[in-house]
Amino acid sequence: MGSVAEFERSIIKERQAEGIAHAKARGVYKGRVKALTDVQVAQARQWICPKRRWPADSGSGGLRSRNT
After folding, report:
1. Which H or E run includes 11?
2. pTM listed for this prediction
3. Measured between alpha carbons, how far is 9 from 64 in angstroms, rounded to an integer?
4. How far is CA 53 from the centre of its chain?
5. Measured between alpha carbons, how far is 23 from 16 in angstroms, rounded to an integer?
6. Rounded to whole angstroms, how far apart are CA atoms 57 and 17?
7. Under a CB-based contact definition with an 8 Å cutoff, are residues 24 and 17 in contact?
8. Alpha-carbon span 54 to 64, nearest angstrom
9. What's the Cα-to-Cα distance from 2 to each of 6, 7, 38, 52, 56, rounded to whole Å?
10. Are 55 and 64 in contact (CB under 8 A)?
């Protein structure tokens, strides 16, 4: 049963990926809308730790510890 469900799920993922690729080609799919503006993100970071120097937003996708 599990292998059948896994196979069906892989087919669903395949179809979804094809649909997204087709929509991107038509210029319809642009991804998820950002919930916060860059200004709001900067303000939230200052609220979290006001003395920390935050890295410039380079698309790294998150907070990093100081040791990395």
Report:
1. helix 2-26
2. 0.46
3. 34
4. 23
5. 10
6. 28
7. no
8. 9
9. 6, 9, 44, 49, 45
10. yes
- Give, as one character, the DSSP assignment of residue 54: P
Dump pLDDT digits (tens) for 7-65: 999 999 999 999 999 999 999 988 888 899 999 998 888 888 877 776 765 455 555 55
Residues in the chain: 68
Enumerate residues 6+ apart whose C-beta is below 8 A from 36: 44
Give the Cα separation of 45 and 41 in Å (integer): 6
At 21, the amino acid letter reads A
Find where tokens 């937003």 sit.
57
